[in-house]
Amino acid sequence: MDFSVPVGGPNPAPQSVQIQNAGPGTVTGLGVATILYEPVVGGWLSSSIGGATFAPATLTISVDVAGMLPGLYFAIVPVVSSVTGVLERDVVVTLQITSAPIIQISPDTVTLAGTVGGAAPGPQPAAITNIGTGNITGMSVGSIIYDAAGSGWLNGTLDQPTDPATLTLQATTTGLAAGIYSAKVVVESNVTGIVPDTVNVVLDMSVTAAAPVLSVAPTSVNLVANGGGPNPAAVTAAITNSGGGTITNLTLGATQYLPAGTWLTAGLNQASTPATLTLSANSIPLAPGHYRARVPINATGISGSPKTVSIDLVVNAVASLSVAPLTVNFAGTIGQPSPSPQQVLISNAGPGVLAGIAAGPIAYGPGATGWLQASVGATSTPTAVVLTANPTGLTTGSYTATFPVSSTTPGMIPQTVVVNFDVASPTGFFNIISGDGQTGFVDSTLTQTLVVRATGASFQPVPGTAVLWTVNNGGVLSNVTTLTSSLGEAKATWKLGHIAGLQTVHVSSSGRPTLTFTADAQLLPSGTNQHPNEPPGYVRFAEHNMSSLPSYPRTIGGLAGSWYGYPLNDPDLVVINPDTSAPESPPNTMRSRFANGLSAGLGPVNFGGWDVAGVAQAGQKSKLYLSMWIKIEGQDYENQAFGTKMGFIGVGVPTSSAGTNVYFLLAGLGGVQTVGSSFNVTLHQENPASSGGPVRVISQNVNRNRLMTVGVWHHWEAVLEVNTLGQANGIFRWWID
User: 292: left (phi > 0), else alpha (psi -120 to 50), else beta?
Assistant: First the structure.
């Protein structure tokens, strides 16, 4: 009897042998004796005569090839009878196990671990090999058999249909509850005779606390504005935690611009999620074009950080009234014809045509009226205004007039044209060339020489003209020239008198108007160590000695801008008051009265200015030292039910657009600011305390200690150094005494 089966294949079908009695009588007591194997590998054969004990009967033989290697195997099955004299008969069985391809998956069990609500576990590989002979082709992933815990959560893919191959097992855990899930994945071949193999997959789903994840929406914003304004409406982005736990350390990084700029303001309403990022664009100063910015949002140590919000701003070109030039200068001579007319060109700096162009009415400065005529050509752009200046009836001097140029097209802002008319006598002009408006210490010589020039009616230099110099306020003139040079110039050096305040020098020449030079005389600092916290290397560029009330506009020692009392021109709230106890400018002091009932946020004193040399990039200062002395008179100034609270340095109302900004070294009050040599010092009224707590505009105290004593001079000093762009290395220090 012969059996043949491929290695690893299924057991072959059983075979049978018929047992007959070949002689007389009856054969009984049938049975099978001990089976003999060759080679000595036993146990693979089993036999049965089905319980029969006499012939005829059927002997059934089965083989089990599990675990057997390829080869030829033999067995002898003895059929015997218990009847004496009945001979034994042997059945010889041959088993041929042939070599063939065999699929094997390793490992046979793969374990995956997932978190409820978390990301799916990573894919896991299993190796597919051939432990038989030949090659395996046509492999594929067959059915996936799930247990009762759940189905559909597993996917298996082969990288190729031939051996060796990799089976990738990927679990999808969305919607699965905590627990153990099992499945069997079958890998099979479409080639007949290749036995499939199975891998067991176990998924362990657990519940753990999810980590916080920073999320921002939207991550891009598009803004559109018209050139010249208005600004586009502010937009917001929602900053949330899409994971577990909390996020409490939100910050904004430095805004990045393309092209470079400072047109975007970004702010967080709080440092913890959920938070709102507010983005405001100042498009008014921008030329038409496309602008981009990126705002980084940081949460150190949090997954998903940093996030970036991109802002695209498109500024559209719009109609704009263009008038050039805005200043026109005429020169005429008494008794001579009018100077040639001049044109002011009017156009639309944007698309389209502007209609309803008009010029006027004319407003005249001091001295005379009616000397200027302005005639508009066409009433739509492009056009021009023709200006004519007539010296008839005028005396020698300088005259000024202004007039608006307007358009009826909606949204057009009128432009003002300034016209200057210098009228000379037949003998010519007499003007200051240099040296006016200087500042120096009392009893010191000014650095600039005083220079005047005499010119004829055609502006040619007039040499040999007699000049008379008169100095006032105890000053002294030296190096004086009393006759004009070949350039028509006369000069003098001015040493200031010993009285602080404004000092003057008058210069006259026969037949010409008298000229006046002014200088601001400052007191020298008295005593030693007057400015103990002034950093080394700083140079004084401006000083006010309180010798006169501040006015507007005002230029004092290199400062231009708004030096004024509030309300303007009030004779009571701000006065110059002699006080010989003043530490640095005796007897000059300026006294301010904070009247009961004065509105919060307003005050009698506001010094605001900017460095005259700081109007351009090269002249801007980036470091500032401020020194001032303050004495509070009266009973007290803090925590009065109906009293006052002194404001500090350049601080705006927190709820306003200027929100508590100190604008040392910044140009502009609130909103978008640029670095410039500007500063502001404000002492203003504050709301009193209420039963519900402080309602003052400015926070009441830096600390709980009383820093100011009534009736005593206190020295305030401050240093501010602007940071390097993109670095947090700026400095602000403030000292009291």
Answer: beta
